[in-house]
Design brief:
The complex is a heterodimer of chains A (688) and B (133). Chain A has 688 residues and is of the alpha+beta class. Chain A has 21 helices and 22 strands. In chain A, 46% of the residues lie in helices and 24% in strands. Chain A is elongated, with a radius of gyration of 62 Å. Classes of the chains: A alpha+beta (688), B alpha/beta (133).
Amino acid sequence: MNRLLKTQLAAQFGDIDSVPNSIQQLIETVSKCYDEYERQIEALESANHQLSESKKIADEEAGRRETHLTSSQKISQVGSWEVAIHPTDMALNALYWSDETYNILGYDPKTTDISNEKFFERVHPDDAAIINNAIQNTLATGAPYDVEHRLLLPGNIEKTVRERGDIIKDAAGKPIRIIGTIENITNRKKAKQELIKANEELTRLFENIHEVYFSVDMETYALLQMSRTCERLYGYSVNDFAANSNLWYEVVLPEDKPNIDKNYPVMRAGKPFTQEYRIQHKDGSIRWLESKITPTLDETGKLIRIDGVSSDISERKEAELALALSEHRFRSLIVNSSDVITVIGEDSTYLFASDAIYRVTGFTPEELIGTSSKGHVHPDDIPAIDAGRLGAINNPNGTTVVQYRRLKKDGSYVWVEGTGHSMLHDPSINGIVINFRDITERKAQEEAIQASNEELIKSNKELDRFVYSVSHDLRAPLASMMGIISLIQTECADKNVLGDIALLKNSASKLDTFIQDILDYSRNSRSKLHIKPVNFGELLHEVKNNLKHMDTDSAVNIKIDVVADTAFYSDPSRLSIVFNNLISNAVRYYNPKVTEPYVSVRVDIQKTNAIIIVKDNGIGIEKEHQEKIFDMFYRVSKKSVGSGLGLYIVKETIEKLNGIIKMESEPEQGTQFTIIIPNLINVEKSTM
Amino acid sequence: MYKKVIVIDDNEIDLYIAKRVMAKYSFAEEVVTFSSAIDALEYIQTSYKNGATIPELIMLDINMPEMTGFQFLEKYGALPTDIINNCSIIMLSTSIHPDELKLADNSPHIQKFIGKPISGDALVKLLAERQTD
């Protein structure tokens, strides 16, 4: 400041020395004053600065306190609040809720205005009285209150809170406000309830437990403690055991006492041990017990105390015994069975073989175990057993059966049938179980059956040929006879001779029919079906023509009616046999009393069947005979001229064609046969 | 009426009947019978060589010793076509085994089967069929 003024004056006066002294002194004074002024301002600014700094620190402190308060309320779930008490009527008016109070009551601080009503909206309706009473009491007595009550928040959320409140008084001692806290103790409450529940369960568990815990002072043999469950296990009470320190030993079955005695040195040595023995319950029943005992020795090695637990193991013991028994039973089954049981691993190595293997193969189980099973199978059968083993592995629920030849110790082979079942998934076996048995005898029988079957087929064929030759040789001379008879009939005029000749011809033709029947029967029963398209019209006319040689032909009218919309396949030669028999029967047994004897054959061909109806107005069949007419060699009466084979052959032939035949007949009215034959169009040329 | 018919059958009575019936129904101008298929075959071959009349119809039994009807057919198939084309064969039989029926089906020479004994009806029918052909 001083220099600045001096510079200004120098510029004014040309030189500082030209400035009058008085001015110079004044300047000095002004400068000094100014400097003092500046110094004071600086001091003031500095003080001001210090003041604002300390205010900032104070603000920060207040903020921190606020934060801590809010956070700690939040963490501890304790909210705080304040209500004003009206000076005259003592009515309460909410003044302040901390954030946590809002939170506990389920309100948003930003959108909710506090009021007593808002508070009571959240109080569980049943618990409002608790608070009201507490506050009234506090107002009356001035003592703080501390209550627990429930809240009921929207969404049916129930909370339990603990509220504490205290009265604030003014200088005159008049209550002006209540300040209080609200603490969310829902979880704590819940935990407490769970703890109570767990305790109850534990108590129940102890009451229901089957084990008996006990401790004995081994210096005085005094029972230190024993759980009450001993009553269930032994039938004796804790007092009984306390009164008689040897009671536990007295109830042990005499034969099991040595089991206990032998553990005495172990106990004395301080080593824990377990013993199993039977006792007699007070009710007389026998129980299996297991006792686990832990002895305690003092520093000198002297036994001072035992602690133990005894449990009833009767059920387990019985199951064990049953298991041992059944195992014994199975073992003896395996040992004595004629079936051999083997177990092989996935790599075909023998893991087990039952003793029976010696009987079948001459090898002992010891000789086999560890070796490959393939070495014991005929080389030609290895593919079969390989396939069988893979089959068993791939289908663990099924069994595979393989017949193969198994090596005997003498080098020969024995036929066996093995049944394999994979137990690879069962860790107790971890192999393929194969049981096999000697089937040499069965195999021999099978081969014998096979051989006799082949023999039978051969002799059947021979028989077939024989029937043909014989029938041919029998029919040939008959045919010659008939030929000669026909010649005589055309050339002779003598009525007596013609009469005799007619009888002769009748006999010859009867014999011929009989031979033909036998031939037909043989043909039907032995030969296969020859399936071809069937032309019923042609076939029936052929049959009709063949019947012309019969003597009665003149009288009976043979009517044929075929309705064929579709092709029909069957065995024509067999159908021919059927028609021949049925029509010739109708012709043979026509009714002489009717004026127009007839037999009508109606064939209705459909896609799946042919329905054939052969109907006549002949003499019919008596009811009593109807059941039997299809029987072999059954003849209705002496009037019957046939062999008794005709209808039997018809029935057999229709059965061979997979068809059915039904007969209805009324004596003196006629007979109707209904036949249904399947259309074998889809099995054409195949054989049946 | 046929000009020449041959009947081959080892049964002499059947041959006799055939001859009688054929004569009665004026079936053929000439009927030659053989009890041996071998002889019949030889006869046909010789007739052909000598330019004699060739049979128009052969009636052939199946069951014969030495040469059966089917064996005859095999040899017959090897004969000159002049003969085969102008001649029909009818098989005679009392009972036919299905195997034989199959053989007959496979043979191109067989015209039909007729049952023995040869009856007048059968001959009349054959003549009628020939007319319509």
